[in-house]
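SUBJECT: protein chain
CONTENTS: sequence, structure tokens:
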Amino acid sequence: MATLTFQRASWCLQISRTSRAFAINFTTALPRRHRPRHIQSSSPATDPIPQTHTGSSRSRFSKPYDQARSAFTSTRIYQAQQAQAQPETSSSPSGSRPPASISQEPSRSNTTDTQTLTNGLNDQPLILDEGEKQVDWSNSFHGLSTAAFSKEAAKTLLAPLATDDIEIKPDGIIYLPEIKYRRILNTAFGPGAWGLAPRGETIVTAKAVTREYALVALGRLVSVARGEQDYFSPEGIPTAAEGCKSNALMRCCKDLGVASELWDPRFIQKFLKQHTKEVFVEHQVTKRRKKIWLRKDDDVKYPFKETKGNFGN
């Protein structure tokens, strides 16, 4: 038991200087019958406390302090004796060795990181390595503003929109369906002579999908725009990614002058006055009423039905 007690005391003595008093008091507090023989009487030769102090100097070294210092010195002697008793090739005794601090590294999961739809689609454009035979449209601006397109292509791109092609949303915003942008480009350049090249990874946020595209026509960069599209559930992300591409195409076509009337305030006011109407409708399920915009040649569609009066009725 005494050996175990001194092992604990020696650990505390080597951990920090401030904990030595605890170890000494813990050791000297043992009953005399449990103390080893070498601690019951300290050796004058090894006692570091001088015996010739008088007056106020001696008052600092009271009897309990003398016993503590003797216990500390005896413990050091005991450690030296234990170390000499072991062979030189063996390691120091476990009793005189302080417990090693074990640094525990955070455990790493064996599972690989998975890419979720809400973090991105991990669809970075490929980096081409074919010398000068092909342009890497993911970061190149090759051919931008080098020359004008032919007069025939410019005439098709800048042609005024037919009123029958323009649609209106229930909130009063007029727009051109994305398929008609493609028809205009096919007429101007020919099918296969234009395309959209992605310029970055698809970014998926909590409610929307966005990606940057470049419009390339006849081997030249025409415009760069970022498309976006909202979605309401994770299952709708693929459809939103396609809508994002169409939205980028519409924005790129603005630089070519396609459907530029849709951004002209005067044209918008004139079109709303001549070709649209506002009607009150009622939802046939929830019975809620609201006012929506329609083309004059369109009818109210399910789940709404046209109603008379205002919101107060």
